[in-house]
Amino acid sequence: MQALSSVEHGYDLLAPKFDHTPFRTPDGILDATADALRPLGPFGRGLDVCCGTGAGTRVLAPLCQERITGVDFSAGMLARARDAHPDAEWVRADARALPFADAFDLAVSFGALGHFLPAERPALFAGVFRALRPGGLFALPIGAPLPITSGSYWALLGFDLAMRARNALWRPPFVMYYRTCGLDAVRDDLAASGFTVTTVPLPALGQREDGGPRYGLVLARK
């Protein structure tokens, strides 16, 4: 049922069991992100973009001295986040039109970029830029490209091809692609939105066979 729904309704359906699926961002990625951000803080207000059930609170809560806000367009996911983290603020909105301006010092996003087509990323990043105070930071972890010899490479390629076929044959579309948000493209879109962009490795998440990090943390400064 989820696969034949829109993104919004699909996540409403998935919300009650989302935290027990592989789609929830693993704690290891959250903790590695928090470790990388800690020397750059403390921060004031925090924003989790496309917050889902609120897993990003694990990163923001120890780093931010003021209120934490999560934004998502799935009412079902927000209801779960609200139950789990009643002290945070939860806002229902489309991330392509964020309703904030000069309000936050740190923004994060986990596992959401695949829900945006490349042509939609500029609106997403422009909204985050607008939501941050001057000097504010937007952080998001991105995995390194998988080698073509990896089974995961072919699994993700197959998933994306299946999703493209599904969206060509069925409406409404369900946008979820794993191979449309490579590091170079994301960095370019962030820079075009006005950010100064750097990347730091997340060594706690391991290394590839060539010795490079499996994950990097993109740091976009307003």
Automatic annotation (TrEMBL):
Keyword list, A-Z: Methyltransferase, Transferase
Family annotation (SUPFAM superfamilies): S-adenosyl-L-methionine-dependent methyltransferases
One GO process term, biological-process aspect: methylation
Pfam family, one: Methyltransf_25
Superkingdom assignment: Bacteria
Methyltransferase domain segment(s): 47-136
Signal peptide: none
Tagged with keyword Lipid biosynthesis: no
InterPro entries named in the record: Methyltransf_25, Methyltransf_Superfamily, SAM-dependent_MTases_sf
Keyword Transferase: yes
Any one GO molecular function term: methyltransferase activity
Name of protein: Methyltransferase family protein
Organism: Actinoallomurus bryophytorum
